[in-house]
Design a protein that fits this description.
The complex is a heterotrimer of chains A (299), B (450) and C (417). Helices cover 39% and strands 16% of the residues of chain B. Chain B is α/β, with parallel strands linked by helices. Chain B folds into two domains: 229 residues, Rossmann fold (3-Layer(aba) Sandwich), CATH 3.40.50; 141 residues, 3-Layer(aba) Sandwich (Rossmann fold), CATH 3.40.50.2300. In chain B, a hairpin with an 8-residue loop joins strand 11 and strand 12. The longest helix of chain B is centred in the first third of the chain and has 30 residues. Chain C has one domain. Chain C is built from 18 helices and two strands. Classes of the chains: A mainly alpha (299), B alpha/beta (450), C mainly alpha (417). The interface between A and C is large, with 55 and 51 residues.
Chain lengths: 299, 450, 417
Amino acid sequence: MDAFLTSRIISDILEGLTNGVIYGLVALSLVLIWRSTGILNFAQGAMAMFSTYVGMIVFAHDVSYWPLVGIAIVFGFVLGGTTERVLVRTLYGKPEINPIVVMVGFLIVLEAVAAAIWSTSPRGIPNPFSPIDWQLGGHPLALSAFSVYEIVTALVVMTAVAVLFRFTKLGLQLRASALSPEVSRLLGVRVGRMLTLGWILSTGVGTVSAVLVASNFFTGLTPQEMDSIFAFGFIAAAIGGLDSPVGAIVSGITLGIALQFVGDYVNSNAIILTALIVLIISLMLRPNGIFAKSAARRV
Amino acid sequence: MNRTRARRLITSSAALVLCTGLVMVGSSVVTAGATTKVPGVTSKSITIGATVPLTGLAAPGYSEIAKSADAVFKYVNSKGGVNGRKINYVLKDDCYDTPGLGCTGVPNTVTQTHALLSIPVFATVGSLGTPTQDSVRSLLKANGVPQLFVNSGSTDWNNPSQYPGLFGWQPSYTAEAKIFAKYINATYPGANVCFLGQSDDVGTDGLAGLIGAPGAEGVTPTVTDFYSVDALVATNGASVGQYISAFQSAKCTVVVLYTIPGATDAVIGAALQLGYSPHWVISNIGSDPVTVFAPLSAKGLTQDPEIGAVSFSWLPATTSGSPWIPLMRTLMTKYYPGFTSATPLDGNMEYGISWGVAFVEALKAAGRNFTRASFLKTLTSTTFTQTPSLLPLRYTAGDHQGLDGGYLTSVTSATAVTPLTGTVYQTNSAPSGPVTVTAKSSAAIPTWLK
Amino acid sequence: MEGVALQRRSLITGALVVVAVVVSLVAASRLRVGVAVAIPVALALIAVAVVTIPGLHDRHPVVLRAGVTVLLVDVGLFATYFFPSFTNYNLAIGAAMAIALLGLSFLTGVSGQISIGNGAFMGVGALIVAIWANHHSSTPIVVTLLIATAIGALVGLVLGLPATRLRGPYLAGMTLAFAVAFTAIVNAFSSWTGGDAGLQLPTAVTPPHWLTSLYSSQASQLTVSSVWLADITIVAAGVAFFFMANLFASRIGRSMRLVRDNDVAAELVGVSLPRARVIAFMVSAAFAALGGGLWTLVNNSVSPPEYSLALSITMLSLIVIGGIGTIPGALIGGLIYAYSNTVITWFTSHTGINSQGNLASQLPGIVFGGLLILTMIFAPLGLTGAVRRLWSHFRARRAARLALVGTATYARHTGNS
């Protein structure tokens, strides 16, 4: 049994799962914003990263983990809501290209400001959970206290948000405000509030993922930490369908596991290449994503 | 219609006047001869420049080097300069030519070098990096600008026939690796050795020295891997994990690293995570404990996992009692921004101070009136014994590599390395060529520093 | 009336051309540098004469564009002779970037497809030039650049095919993935591409003898080769601009704009949507590859990490600020790219910001990102759009004023022919 659990295949699955839940979180946050406001937030990772930095600096000395997480998430809420009100409001109804470009600009500014204030050197966050892999019969099991914490936290958050979105009245209001704002207004839904709430929720989810990434003992917090994670999270969301929260979670986890196998059995260069090819194939077959409900427009 | 014709006439005349004017200006420019003064040198100052990674992946540690040399120059300037000239050192950031989104807009090395040339500078002194400096070799050569004391151990800087103005300074990676191989063979005979190097000269030169010439006392690794700096940045350090895992599966008890500090961190972290603790043998460029441990300690690690690693140095250890150490500390406290009595004097700072002193020595030896050509001649005909390095610095017309030896060190704490045996080795930069033991030169402190 | 007026105009134009040639010959005979001065001056005057022919815009727009191109290139070439080498270097870099931006402007503005992967296309061109030069060093520069452009177009085709079915965010994401994957591709084939370290050109681009002979023997190599490299890029930029200007106005360009604005209508009219989109991708990739290839020539080396996602995003920022879907926008973007660092360095040295500190290194990012956001919100058509709006506003007011005057004088003028 020990040998099986520490075998290469299981190790890859476990490590892939650890990465995959992060991609799932990012993908979910992207889907949330897309479903609630119809915008693809390219600055998602950067906003999350920035919130994590704010959580870290609130305590100049003696940074302890849980307050840091709390402050980061709260700041994430504030940042998301403020961004929607100030920046995104001006973009509704404009051509598709405008919000994408603006969010890309926001991405650059956030990373540059973070690097200007806190430099690009990695910062450590003291972690209550040990990242050292558990050993089983002398071989490392691809799980540690920290990675279990990562997986459990991510799954809990993803499930909670998905449930909120699909099964609660608030979720229904969020979805309705995006789909038919006029009708929703007539029915008494505060559409503006719902749009802001969508962003608040999404940035909170994104911040959780950034905190988890930064808490990873051996990578630490840098302004660029979310860049490639955002790329993979976006690819997962695109494959699963920007409309589908469940699709985002499933494809994030699956992508994480699949890419871990690719990285292990081929080499690390093949990882992003595989992701790109999978993305292209998936979009050619189902341009709106695998789990999308609406059929693609045929042109 | 009248208006159109008038407009046309006016436009044409204006164009004619403009072109004629340009021609007049131009003919005066063409006949102006080139200046006969030495570029970058005035009666009161000499301007030198360097492209260094002030931001980005390579910045931790490496950004201290040129600033430490600048501390030496500031000290010298406070005493009136060299032969009456103050040294003006211009630093340009090139982000190690790896502009991830953390260095958006930072120009590349070629652009920054062009900027330096337009100042103009007398020479570039202490520019850092192997691929970065390779990319400007021909540019600097074509303009007759000396490229001095390149901060890298690549053998690319030793090419006097093609690049007469190009000089290295530190012992080459090949020389260092040969000394490592001798040590490994003596201490761990028959062990499985694994090698991880950067995917450029750092890694390939190191591997060549480790393996050595056929029949020589080399070490052939069981597993050899190279990592890409770009991939390291993109994956936040996770890309080296697979290599360490492979080393663990191959049961390597000795791991040789030719890595920059950021990569050393990632490797040590991955090994900790896997519960893998081989004997580390780390190149000087990536082993400085202060640089390596800083991010790890910020994450809550109390015990420096690098302790016990073997590395290499050619400069006095901070624990050695050499009179250079207190001198360096005084220098840094006065002239390095942010250096206090509590700041540890790390390997990068010693590195920068050492070639800074060497440059001042060379400038002194060149005399009050010098040209670029005469300066290079001074470099190749003088032996510099009054610098911190334990071996004298010697260039010849046929060898521009620089220092050629050093001693093995052991990382004994989070802030210091100590000599392993104290033996000082000397060897050339070809994979063949024996490693010999040599007596230390007592690196005296020059009078201008006392 | 038309025939006689046209004849008169042609005579005047011809006379101006003759004057230009005579003046140039006179100037040539008086000055040391002779023909090298005469040719640009003559060309400039001819171009001016051609460009100012009234009605050319409607009758022979291609000739007009050619004239404008020749004029601008000519003045540019002339100017490089007098600039210091660092200026020429920056101009060369900026001109190459302008070429790449032209392609991006076409793709996003005219064809309406967003791409944050054009930096990777530049990287393709840059690598092809370096690899080719290392294996076939005797190929003339023009041929090498054409090869790079062709391969760039090919890569654009490969990426454009899946792009045809994708809408905004999905397309942006695919180009994002490509930009990120480019580095991995480079590393996967590192024996060809040099991996992270890149490649050097085996021999630097040497200026031709006739250019070197214009300079005194004491002029440095840097000066002459910087002039030559700037000249190459300016000529290439001229060719690129001419091509693009005609493409914008052609039927292909018009049908692309139709696809962008109303693809259903375009389909009804018979425009093949996938084909239009793929062509746009190919064109933008080809232009980007040409720009990247020129960068390799100017830098004498290629450093693949430079062609990262950061470059793609910078390109997008530049064309947005300059003006998406416009040609002057690409020029403006190129200039900004060439001089942004000089400006920022000047700014940091004059405001006491530590030039070696974090803020100074991140200032370009803050400025670019900020400008990108502000431009997109307040002036989505960029600087060009803003200037054009001002210009048409000005002309409208002038026309309104003239209309009042015109009605009074119209009666008087209708008597003349």
